[in-house]
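Pipeline run #58 for the internal structure catalog. This entry was flagged by the ingest filter as a single-chain record with no existing model, so it goes straight to prediction. Upstream metadata was stripped on purpose; only the residue string is passed forward. Reviewer on rotation: M.T. Logging verbosity set to normal.
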Amino acid sequence: MSARLLEGKPIAVKIKDEIRKEVSEVTSKLSKKPTIAGVQIGDNPAADVYFKSQIKCASELDIEYQHHKLSAEIPQNELFAFIDSLNNNTRVNALFVQMPLPAHIDSRLLYRHISPLKDAEGMHPENLGKLFFGKARVIPCTPRSIMELLKATGINLYGKEAVIVGHSEIVGKPLSLLLLEQFATTTVCHIATGERGLTAEHLKHAEVVVVAVGRANLIKGEWIKEGAIVVDVGINRVNDKLVGDVEFEEAAKRAAWITPVPGGVGPLTVAMLMRNVVEAAKLQLC
């Protein structure tokens, strides 16, 4: 079997068309453009690239983007005070804070400081609680992107064996809830699974595989079940080449669908962030 490529860009184009129509409606009701404030803490070349892509996408969709770049040395209480000022700014509809944060800033406390009505990443405890009950309108961007990729394959997830490798708060954990909402039989593997040597055992039955660890070629191609759908979230630099967490060439011989790295999940995440901006603006109209 030779896998079909599951590319994010064509899906992102369709989603942007949908968002563009919603932006027009929301702009009419707000009497202004939906607005996102993106907060960058410290200098990071990768973050600079990501912010440029956000600003470009926002401009294409007629969403106003405010980019705030703060010192990496900013005290936590001053950062939280700045976040509070954005929460109270009626012109700002959504907030985004670039991760990772400097070591002296607690990311969990930060997420709690962002108003749940302006939470562009869906990571406030209130929004995660709504996700738990299947009621969320603002959903973490990468898990939402993964679900769109799976939808594009035409798969009915009901009863399918799905395995997530990686249990991070921003990908693995929320994704497990989204898959369970679709009645997929969902298993989450993590560092302890690997330490016991059981990851391959779980994967051999997986009809849907999502890997989000950040270790190049962690998942061997021979571990992939024939006909599986493989979504590789990882992006790693090896010898000046970008590779995923899955051995692409070998996995592609067995899978039915597989995401390329780069070009799979990445192109969708910014579009999902903009979708969340529009959802946040709608919530503020209620």
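catalog note: The chain has a mean pLDDT of 96.
catalog note: The domain at 30-117 is CATH 3.40.50.10860 (Rossmann fold).
status: ready for reviewer M.T.
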